[in-house]
Amino acid sequence: MDTSADRIADPWGARTPYAPGTPWPSRTDTHLRAGIAEQDVERWVQSASLLHSNGDAMDIAVREGRIVGVRGRTADRVNRGRLGPKDLYGWQANASPDRLTRPLVREHGRLVESDWDTAMNRITARTRDLLDDKGPGSIGFYTTGQLFLEEYYTLAVLARAGIRTNHLDGNTRLCTATAAEALKETFGCDGQPGSYEDIDHADTIALFGHNMAETQTVLWMRLLDRLEGSDPPRLVCVDPRYTQVARRADVHLAPRAGTNVALLNALLHEIIRTGRVDRAYVDAHTVGFEELAAMVEECTPRWAAGICDVPAAQIERAAEILGTAERLLSTVLQGVYQSHQATAAAVQVNNLHLIRGMLGRPGRGLLQMNGQPSAENTRECGADGDLPGFRNWQNDEHVAELAAVWNVKPETIPHYAPPTHAMQIFRYAEQGSVRMLWITGTNPAVSLPELSRIRSILAQERLFVVAQDLFLTETAQLADVVLPAATWGEKTGTLTNADRTVHLSEKAVEPPGEARADLDIFLDFAARMDFRDKDDGPLISWHDPESAFAAWQRCSAGRPCDYTGLSYQRLRGGSGIQWPCTEQAPDGTARLYTDGITYAHPDTCESYGRDMVTGASVEPVEYRSLNPDGKAVLKAAEYLPPHEDTSADYPLQLITGRTVYHFHTRTKTARAPELNAAAPDVWAEISPAEASAQGLADGDLVQVTTPRGAVRARLRTTAIRDGMVFLPFHYGYWDTPAGHRPPDDVPGRAANETTVTDWDPVSKQPLFKTGAARVTLVARRASGTGARNETAGSST
């Protein structure tokens, strides 16, 4: 058992080394409120993590109707009892005294407390008026990656078949959209091919833009235990910062921001040049190899070195490791997804696995990672830019099938164009065609790029904003109606992690005051709107989490993300289970594509793909011509320079990212004392050489300026590549003395004051790692001030 008091200084705890091909040993991590011992706990309630995407299973300790701690679940396949810092301490936010407990409505320019009938009547009245006057396209929904599956599915039905709007997306657009799109481009369908258990078997692990040590601390514990055991795997790390992952890597490649495609094309070039291609696998299971080989033929390591500013010899060494691996696992995250040519780069990682035949066997895994606990559910349920059940909006049979599940006419479901992505929804609101925006569990006034623009959109008098959240966030402060929501531990539902493991999280305590579960709020809205199916029955017939789950099972039946073999009862007491889980696979499915490519056939695929440069949708007839037999597509991509480059005025590349101690905009983690004390304020990182060139020192107050805005932060010199500045994106304004953003002409605290309104043409994911900036001195460090020394370095 690990009950170490300081999992802030040591986020990963004690080691339990193990050998390849053997089970990961268990270890029970526990943290209880001061003064509470295990014998004082009245009951333990099953749950899973809500502050990252790993899916750590845990039990919630309850005493006298309050959450008093957590412990890891040793029986679970994901974490084997381990918990990370956000798991161990983050639960304390539930009891924060500033929780929203009653609805708020705007009266004479101010938010005042109200009651549920008044708040919901305002929402339904505005909805009906807009539907009558402007039509469904005047209403948009922007949700989160932290609800439960049952809530996403209900939202998708009421938005797409009730309101009939195409404008529904999640903040998963900021973190996981490229993962989904890359999988669709290559395999015709979303769904992670690999499993966390591939760490137990791999002889080589490559992490592309994925600081696992901080974003998925428990997964890093698993990898650390392999590294400390016999016959450890070789590591390749691609990250411009010298993170904990980079420190353990055999090869660390630190490219210039925005050059991932050039680097990956060079790796593919070397693997093909040295004859390390599994031609039998390529011929049997892929199309497009000749085009890929032609694209990368001239992409030598020397060529890439000139673009990426990485030594050619390092690229060659990395290619040798990847090319000689017998069991290769690759993971990809925000360093790829939020950078230039995001989807094109992520697809090249897929290509690397395909040409090496590294799929479908233990240790041969591919994980296009997620950033949020239930990001996978948004994609499955259609609460983002997809249709539920991984159905294809361009396939009339898929739309008709979904219409039959919902008992509506096919024309009820918008499918005249791709579902609208988040950045376009906000653009429509800016232009005036979207007049109502319902925001659930997310804080775009801090998390979206170019915040001065986002604030001006949300503050428009013509835009009716609903904010459904736990706290009065920066976004909620701008809303017309604020709905107090229940959260993890206060409601029941399922959530699916980054390797398709479904967990059940049960209600442990009552929510504060009048706060309600998101599912109950959506069901209330649907009932007040009296949404009907084609037979004049209620469109949404379920009434609680378990009946909503049953409805989702019917929708998922026969689709790649098939849940029909699962139930709440099966998910109680033991381990989470990976979908697809069916009568034929009652214990779930560890890996996809164990016997060829399953979901890429033109009649089955979720997507026909997009053009890598323009993002235009590929037409069905074109896809059928390219891939009539439904094989994996080896999709080549030419390197293109980033849209914004450095200049004399802005000589540094700006990237943003995470820290191990916080999640998103700190609405929960900053209310956990240990987590907040570990990283209480924003900082900026540059290399020692950059600092020396400007006469700067650790702890100096500096200003990071871009063409969009400026941030003031304490300086840290770290082992980041020269010519780059890093800002953590978590920090907003709710916990500043004023409680809100200062005037726009004053430098801010939020990294997204500085980021650019630009997105990947394919995945539509915003580019938080491609801006140009300068760093200037504001004030010298005063004695005794300065930022906390980094434990691990924040994620890119």
UniProtKB/TrEMBL annotation:
Against CDD domains, the record matches this protein to:
MopB_CT_Fdh-Nap-like, MopB_Nitrate-R-NapA-like
* Superkingdom, taxonomy of origin: Bacteria
- UniProt domain 4Fe-4S Mo/W bis-MGD-type: residue ranges: 42-98
User: Keywords in UniProt for this one?
Assistant: 4Fe-4S, Iron, Iron-sulfur, Metal-binding
Report TM segments: none
Ranges for region Disordered: 1-29, 740-763
Signal sequence span is none
Gene3D superfamilies according to UniProt = 2.40.40.20, 3.40.50.740, ADC-like domains, Dimethylsulfoxide Reductase, domain 2
* Record-linked InterPro entries: Asp_de-COase-like_dom_sf, MoPterin_dinucl-bd_dom, Mopterin_OxRdtase, Mopterin_OxRdtase_4Fe-4S_dom, Mopterin_OxRdtase_prok_CS, Prok_molybdopt-oxidoreductase
Protein name, entry field = Anaerobic selenocysteine-containing dehydrogenase
Species the sequence originates in: Streptomyces africanus
From the broadest rank down, the organism's phylogenetic lineage runs:
Bacteria, Bacillati, Actinomycetota, Actinomycetes, Kitasatosporales
